[in-house]
Amino acid sequence: MTDTTTPAATDATGPVVVRTTRASRAAAVVALPVVALLAALPYLVAPNITRLLVGLFTLVLLATMWNLLAGYGGMISVGQQGFIGIGAYAVLVADLIGVNPYLGLALAAVGAAVLALPTALLVFRLHGGYFAIGTWVVAEVYRLVTVEFRAVGGGSGASVTGLSVFPPVLRGAITYWCALGAAVLAVGGVYLLMRSRLGLGLTAIRDEPTAADSLGVRVRAAKRVVFVVAAAGCGLAGALIAVDSLRVQPDSIYSVQWSAFMIFMVVIGGLGTIEGPVVGAVVFFAIQQLLEPYGVWYLVVLGVVAIAAALVARRGLWGLLTLDRDVRLLPTGYRLRP
Amino acid sequence: MLLSVRGLSRSFGGLTVVDDVSLQVEEGTAVGVVGPNGAGKTTLLNLLDGVLTADAGRIELDGRDVTRAPAAQRCRAGVGRTYQTPRPFSGMTVFENVLVGAVHGAGLRKGAAQRRALDCLGRTGLLPRANELAGDLRLLDRKRLELARALACGPRLLLLDEIAGGLTDAELPELIAIVREVRDGGTAVVWIEHIVHALLEVADRMLCLAQGAVLAEGDPAGVLADAKVREVYLGSSVEGLGGVAAVPAAGDGLPTGDGS
To answer: Residue A241, Cβ neighbours under 10 Å: how many?
Structure first.
């Protein structure tokens, strides 16, 4: 047997690793003016329009966080409302101690992230369906503990009063900019995260946890980072809901319906893609706005859309829109060009 | 001594699958592991790699006790392994699969990791498949991918689990050349294989397991000539030994015949 060496792949004319696609380069060119236009909207349109968009951006943030958890981290949580609630109450606490509620947004994200660490210790002992239910139980515990505090209104909740110093138009604009910033930060942050070495490890864990372990991926640490980041994002979303509605009510802010909405948006849009949850959030928002006057019909339509998507768009609307051709505006992978 | 294993045991329920196994492997040498199905070969590999934890015994890597270390930590300390049944990251491309080993196992940074991944793909002949999803690969390429990923970790100890199984005679020399090259580069190799003539091309020593325990150990030809080894092998339906007669280099002192 001769010691035949295999052809070298390291010579100077070897293949080149590319991380952009034609679609992504086009998206990069379009993204900047679009975000700039959105940022200028408070000067261009009526406050009721930007008010609506705060709701949309919050949904984009929530969907992106749930996708990070489930689509990339493989953690199906139905307890993210726990962190949404913590975030909203962080605004109330900031308000109570005389801190500007807008600074409370940062406090909310940090607070939710800090709380996520001990929560992870607890729920990471569970897997699959048990993990899902476990996160829900933890969220309920957060709610039950929260309503024990009279200072934040106990079971009936409280209002955010510190924002009354701002004229309504300015307040609406600042809230809008905060929501836009949070959504852009979430989508951009998840994009950068998934392009990093952590993202590579996470994708490996999602596909084959045992092999990932054998190849040196710190499975537990990677999942913990995802859990903490998703908690911070949901905390921020809860805070945005609070500064937007000026009222925090424990039963609704800690409601499991938030998890249902997040799952709906991500599954409809496309699990495990960065674009999918954004599309899902837009669709959900549209259904919500169009059918709001029809009461319970809104839930019926949501159900029908979910079933239809499950039947005809197995890879979500993003898969349908791109005809399953794996078009990525925000590609996280690697391609070799010879 | 790179790998030093003493008194390693592992049971599942009442069944002792690995029973008091000791093993020493030096840098730049290869140990072949043979034994009938169910002898505990793969479990031994899982214990060495950290996917399973031993009930008793001690594993030292370069003098450091790693008996309780998780697989990821052992990988970063220099242990690479392949799975008998390939476990590709199905939704990732072949290149990305290998990059995982280079980035997380070897701890290389961007450019260096990509060069390492390309190099490993080249060595295993997978470069033309680099952009394909690993889940779409056929068996032979999945086996190659197992090897490429393990190599990307830059292992000082390479654990191979039936990497030659399912390969044709024409494909074997290429694989043997890769393993030999890795060993000659100073890596210690532990190779489980039923295709004994492939093993004989590379193995400096041979270990035969039966019912979890070491039946024979030492010079490959000597181990295969051992009466007890011949009995456990010829008493079972293992393909490899039937083929050894056809390979001149492996012809001496080996059990011959087709196993019947």
So the answer is: 24
Specify the 3-state DSSP secondary structure of B159: strand
Domain residue limits at B116: 79-154
Strands, E assignment, A193-331: 247-248
How many other C-beta atoms lie within 10 A of the C-beta of residue A215? Answer: 32
A9 within a domain of the structure (yes/no): no
In a domain, B148, yes or no: yes
* Tokens 């990070």 sit on residue: A68
Strands (DSSP E) found in A153-225: 158-159
Answer whether residue A220 is part of any domain.
yes
The residue segments making up the domain with residue A247 are 18-256
When divided into structural domains, chain B yields a total of 1
Q: Determine, for residues A218 and B106 on separate chains, whether the beta-carbon distance falls below 8 Å.
A: no
Q: Indicate whether B235 pLDDT > 80.
A: no
Buried b / exposed e along A185-207 (16+ C-beta atoms within 10 A): ebbebbbebbbebbbbbbbbbbb
Position B20 in a domain: no
Q: What is the mean pLDDT of residues A104-117?
A: 96
CB contact under 8 A, A214 and B75: yes
Which of A3, A204, A335 shows the shortest C-beta gap to B100? A204
Q: Token digits for A250?
A: 């424990």
Q: A316: alpha, beta or left, given left = phi > 0 and alpha = psi -120 to 50?
A: left
The DSSP secondary structure of A260-300, one letter per residue, reads HHHHHHHHHH-TT-SHHHHHHHHHHHHHHHHHGGGTTHHHH
Question: pTM to 2 decimals?
Answer: 0.86
Mutate to test the interface with A, among B95, B99, B104, B201 (most CBs of A within 10 A): B104
What residues of chain A, 113 to 142, have a C-beta less than 8 Å from chain B? none
pLDDT tens-digit map of A4-20: 333 444 445 678 999 88
Domain-located, residue A337: no
Q: Is A212 on the interface with B (CB under 8 A)?
A: yes
Q: Answer with the residue of higher pLDDT: B202 or B249.
A: B202
Residues A189 and A201 sit within 8 Å (Cβ to Cβ) = no
What tokens does A138 get? 């933890």
Using the beta-carbon criterion (under 8 Å), do B71 and A213 form an inter-chain contact?
yes
Nearest residue in chain A measured CA to CA from B173: A1
Whether complex ipTM tops 0.90:
no
If you search the block for the tokens 């408070």, which residue do you land on?
Answer: A42
Confirm whether A301 is domain-assigned: no
Structural domain includes residue B98: yes
pLDDT digits (tens, 9 = 90+) for B151-161: 999 999 999 99
The closest alpha carbon to A90, from A201, A324, A261, A253, belongs to A253
Q: For residue range B2-44, list pLDDT tens digits in order.
A: 999 999 999 999 899 999 999 999 999 999 999 988 899 999 9
d(CA B156, CA B29): 11
Number of domains in chain A: 1
Q: Is B159 left (phi over 0), alpha (psi -120 to 50) or beta?
A: beta
Nearest CA in chain B to A11: B119
For residue B248, give the 3-state DSSP assignment.
helix
Residue B181: pLDDT above 70?
A: yes
